[in-house]
Amino acid sequence: MQAENIGVELFRTFLAVSELRSHKRAAAHLHLSPPAVSGHLRRLQDQLGVKLFDTSVPGVRLSTEGAIVVETAKDIVNSHDRLIEQIQQSRSATPDRTTIRIGVPHELRCWLLVPLLAEVQKSHPELEFQLRRGSSTSLLNELKHGDLDICPAVTATPPPTTVRTYQEDVVWVSRPDEEHTLGNPVLIVAHPDGSIVRNLMLSSLEDANIRYRVTFQAAHIDGAIAAVRRGLGCMALLRSNAASDLFQRNDLPPIPHAYWGIHLRQTLPVIERLADDILTILP
């Protein structure tokens, strides 16, 4: 007798036939064909090694062994159905994790985003966040190709009206004790290649035929400001990033405005909310 690995559906079919007293009614109840019902019963009897129904009398009547099996079959089917229900409820209570991929340009401090993301996650505990640092140009390219979901970015021209935008001044800064001294070439602290503010800064010097040399390059705004404080050079910064202890210079060429934009890959409500929240930390 082979009694291992008996399928729950075989017991379910057996219970339906025993309760409804009809193969045909059981088939309709289970959305099976009558031959499928007969096949289930045959397989169950073969695996248990007993006759479940008394075929010596008309109609559908349990055999002695069948009456024993029916009670255990009820326990098996009920336990199975309760387990499935519990799993489904658990999945409903704990939704699948969803990752929001956020581009962070060199001109934005990552730590400013942390309180916003913590607040969003309170109402959306299923969310996870991935921050990617890079130049605005590279991040916007990632967004275009579907590798990011949202990206605050700095551009040299106003972004499309379909994104949230803000215009900001770009200013020259140096440490206070260098307010009257400019070398030749001018020593420059800069963001890495691809940074819009870097491009605007260097273009303004080149257009004015001013010689310069980049002495320090930092991907993070705090590292760049630290380099300026230590006298490694002067730098162009968004006004909101210009620390109060730095001297804002007026003896270098003016730099055009830069434009913040909050760019979205898709307009899901949670991403729309996040875009509005990010806008509050921009100047």
Automatic annotation (TrEMBL):
The keyword Oxidoreductase does not apply. Pfam families: HTH_1 (PF00126), LysR_substrate (PF03466). Residues 6-63 form the HTH lysR-type domain. InterPro entries: LTTR (IPR050176), LysR_HTH_N (IPR000847), LysR_subst-bd (IPR005119), WH-like_DNA-bd_sf (IPR036388), WH_DNA-bd_sf (IPR036390). The keyword S-adenosyl-L-methionine does not apply. NodD regulates the expression of the nodABCFE genes which encode other nodulation proteins. NodD is also a negative regulator of its own expression. Binds flavonoids as inducers. The lineage of its organism: Bacteria, Pseudomonadati, Pseudomonadota, Alphaproteobacteria, Hyphomicrobiales. It comes from Afipia massiliensis. One of its GO terms (molecular function) is DNA-binding transcription factor activity. Belongs to the LysR transcriptional regulatory family. This is DNA-binding transcriptional LysR family regulator. Keywords: DNA-binding, Transcription, Transcription regulation.
